[in-house]
Amino acid sequence: MRKIVILGAGYAGLEVARSLGRVLGRTGSAHILLVNDKEYHVFTTELHKVAAGTAEPADVTASLADLLDETGVELIVDRVEGIDPERRAVELAGGTVLAYDRLVVALGSTTEYWGIPGLRERSLSLNGLEGATAIRERVREVVQRAEEAGRQAHIVIGGGGLTGVELAGELAFRLAKGHRITVVELAPNLLVGQPERLSREAERILAQMGVTIRTGVGLNAVDEDTVLLSSGERMDYDVLLWAGGVRGNPIVAKAFPADTRDRAIVDSWMRSEAYPDVYIVGDAAAAKDADGKPVAPTAQAALAQAEVVVKHILYAGVQEEQAVAPYSGRSKGVLVSIGPKQGLGKIGAFGGSGRVWKLLKDANDIRYHLRIGARNGRTRRRETHARPNTESGRHDRAHTA
Ligand SMILES: Cc1cc2nc3c(=O)[nH]c(=O)nc-3n(C[C@H](O)[C@H](O)[C@H](O)COP(=O)(O)OP(=O)(O)OC[C@H]3O[C@@H](n4cnc5c(N)ncnc54)[C@H](O)[C@@H]3O)c2cc1C
User: Fold this and answer.
1) C-alpha–C-alpha distance, residues 77 and 74, integer Å
2) Which of 237, 241, 221 is nearest to 166 (CA)?
3) Is 285 inside a domain boundary?
4) pLDDT of 377 over the 80 cut
5) 2-31: pLDDT as tens digits
6) How many domains does the chain have?
7) Range of the domain at 283
8) Which residue CA neighbors atom 20 of ligand 1 most closely?
9) What is the domain-level CATH number for residue 353?
10) Do residue 233 and residue 349 come from a single domain?
11) 327: buried, middle or exposed (CB in 10 Å: 19+, 13-18, 0-12)?
């Protein structure tokens, strides 16, 4: 029987596994294996809420065993150590070696530190659930220490892209102007790559929430309690959060031709340039749009690429590969949340900011929960965001329903 191995159960990997499972796995026409280092799927696009303490880890995770129920997909919880595309073999940390006929690599990304001295050692990033909970704990600690000393804590966020803006907004809501938050962004404005109007709106909303925005300056070096900015200034910090970029997965870059940022080079059907029996999707791939322009690593792109791969696996060999539409890289738009009450975005010709855009963003998240059949998180209960009790360092949240 044909053996299809999928590595990584994030947005791209889970989509491929569930879709192939429904067609091939359930009928027993292929043996489909999904390997992930955790037994749960993470709603990564919602991790900033865990980092800020406005959501619990259980709200942003779902059991993979439940999500794969009745798909015929076999789940292996183990860490991928290496891939040998010549031998068509995947090596797992537990010692198992998996053979495959087709391989789908969806191992996500790692943090890009751009070689800035001291940054890796002294910052925290939103890399996975562990990263989010580490941020939450550290922020809680520094806030408590600062309050005991009768001063404000200073949280510096490096990077004012989507992740940095969402993190700043959520933290600003949680700390309710009781402490200082500064976003440092090298580009001349926030949300680089998005329409200028959205960047301006993001700056306006964050400023209203008490966040200081420093654009046009980068981080040159990081010491124990100060960052050296490209302007020559030194900025003190209590906690430094890094949201300044991602790079591919080194395991992928070791096994397949990749760009300088460890993202695998792929063709229009997301196949490795060197190994056409291997598909590489999501943040791990250097995907291009129909005009050959690089596609930003997003969950939206990961899902669209997964759909192309599913069709290609199902139909290539039956039809000419050209019968399967290649990945277009077309964006459906952008939605950004800035704390639990404000949002902004652009869908088609319409763009704007405010509460309605936040509701659209929430609806989009819920749509994804429903799409994968998640039974926890916000699909199971409605929650209200309660303001934290910053004096005690705790925060209270109320569940309705
Ligand atoms: C705070 C935040 C907000 C975001 N907001 C948005 C948004 O609003 N919209 C949007 O489109 N995108 C957003 N993104 C980006 C989006 O989350 C990523 O682009 C997306 O998660 C990429 O999907 P993926 O499947 O490639 O990787 P991931 O979802 O990261 O999945 C990778 C999987 O591989 C597993 N894995 C990794 N290494 C190994 C290993 N060695 N062995 C076994 N398993 C392994 C991981 O545990 C994980 O399950 C946001 C990101 C962050 C951090």
Assistant:
1) 10
2) 241
3) yes
4) no
5) 999 999 999 999 999 999 999 998 888 999
6) 2
7) 2-37+78-109+248-323
8) 299
9) 3.50.50.100
10) yes
11) buried
Structure tokens at 150: 């009768």
- Mean pLDDT along residues 219-236: 97
Cα–Cα–Cα angle for 119, 120, 126, rounded to 5 degrees: 105
* Inter-residue contact 289 to 295 (CB < 8 Å): yes
Torsion on CA atoms 163, 167, 168, 173, rounded to nearest 10: 150
CA distance 344 to 335: 6
Residues 255, 241, single domain; the answer is no
Gap between the Cα atoms of 206 and 185, Å rounded: 14
Task: Kindly report whether the global pTM for this prediction surpasses the value 0.90.
Answer: yes
Residue 393 binned pLDDT confidence (cut-offs 50, 70, 90): very low
Give the pLDDT confidence score for residue 209 in this predicted structure: 96
**Residue 263 sits in a domain of what CATH number?**
3.50.50.60
Q: What is the DSSP secondary structure assignment for residue 324, as one 8-state letter? A: S
Q: What is the number of the ligand 1 atom nearest to the C-alpha of 47?
A: 1
Domain membership flag for residue 114: no
With beta carbons less than 8 A apart as the criterion, state whether 2 and 101 touch: yes
Pocket test for ligand 1, best of 15, 298, 336 (most atoms within 8 A of CB): 298
The number of angstroms, rounded, from the C-alpha of 65 to the middle of its chain's C-alpha atoms is: 21
Ligand 1 centroid distance, CA of 299 (Å): 7
